[in-house]
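Lay summary. Proteins are chains of building blocks that fold into shapes, and those shapes determine what they do. In this project we predict the shape from the chain. Here is one chain we studied, written as its sequence of building blocks.
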Amino acid sequence: MSEAAKKPGPDFSMMMKTLSAIRTAADTACDSAQEAGVEGAINWADLGVVEVRFCIDEQGDCSYDVLIEEAAPGCVDLMRHVSGEIAKIGLPYGFEVRTEW
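And here is the predicted shape, written in a compact code that computers can read:
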């Protein structure tokens, strides 16, 4: 067995905790958005986070991606509201919040 095959894989526990914290912050922001006066084409009954990803591009730059469903693509008011909550976490990399139906 090669030396590379014997090495244990990376420990993703801290990454999973960070992704979970991002989801919690984004879900909390979605829950408070209507009361906060967020406007736009939004299905308030089903609005929520469906995916949080850690991304690495081909140049090695890292970021987080948050996908929220049940709001019009590019729903700027909602994306700003959610971004404000996520920013409070103090992430080591940038992030993007996206919306789609």
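What the prediction tells us: Helices lie at 3-6, 13-33, 76-87.
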